Amino acid sequence: MDIRSLRYFMIVYECGSISAAARRCHVAQPSISAAIQQLEERLGAALFERHRKGVSATEEGHRLYPLAMRLNDDMHAIQGLFRHSPPPTPVRLGLMRSLGANRMTRLLKDYIAAGDNLALSLVNPEEPCDARIIDRQDLEPHEGFQPVWHDTYLLALPNGHPLTLKDKVALDDLADLPFIWRHPCTAMTKLAEAMREAGIHCQVRARLRTIEYTQGLVAAGVGAALVPGWPEILASHDFSCRFLKAPPIEETIGIAYPLRHAIPALQPLLQLGEALWKTHQPDHSSS
């Protein structure tokens, strides 16, 4: 059993697709498949179930993942213990709110692992920084843009709310609806503009900054809220999500970087962003 095979296993586990994992690792798909097959033969257990849309971890795969993560972290720690590196390269990365803790954690972890001795500092996107992760519409003229994620927003409703009986909620249904408002949030600004044009007013019961608190208040029955359709949100049983009939409220989130004089240390981040963007586009190739 080698570390590379375990690393490929972890990437396939996270991507849910061998072809997506190959793009993320910048290797050929057969290399990923062969590594997984060798690992399964060595362990005497199937780690994934193959299907048309990709792969799903078996019970054995779910058991192996945290162990592989721990071993991978230990290997990085051992390498760092005996590596005499030059001073780290400082990178200031501006992050907009509401990026999603799970996906940002994965991106930053991969960036630190792929970068060459980085000293990463996270700041607000309005502060001086080397690159920013923002909504495309906030891009400045002097910046390039690497898209990473495309978010579609839905209406989150307390379980049992009458509007959950509808497949889609009309803008008129928001009239006088108890609502949890998030600010700053580009999607909320778009919804406010649509409601203002339609002459619709809701009842603002709370004003928050974070999606996590917003979800908690929706689950408690305080009001409805606009939330991004992240997998962890759609999988929640604490509240129900419905699409709006209004024009879709969407955001393209990506990495904004200087068109001139971008620091070389940003290159691994841009490559990771490109791989993630391709991963979430329609994939018709074999998995």
TrEMBL record:
Please provide the record's keywords in A-Z order: Activator, DNA-binding, Transcription, Transcription regulation
Look up keyword Nucleotide-binding and say if it applies.
no
Gene3D superfamilies to which the protein is assigned, alphabetical? Periplasmic binding protein-like II (3.40.190.10), Winged helix-like DNA-binding domain superfamily/Winged helix DNA-binding domain (1.10.10.10)
Identify the domain of life.
Answer: Bacteria
In terms of InterPro entries, this protein maps to:
LysR_HTH_N (IPR000847), LysR_subst-bd (IPR005119), WH-like_DNA-bd_sf (IPR036388), WH_DNA-bd_sf (IPR036390)
Start and end residues of each HTH lysR-type domain: 1-58
Pfam families to which the protein is assigned, alphabetical: HTH_1, LysR_substrate
Q: What's the family? A: Belongs to the LysR transcriptional regulatory family.
Q: What is this protein called?
A: LysR family transcriptional regulator
Species, as recorded: Litchfieldella rifensis
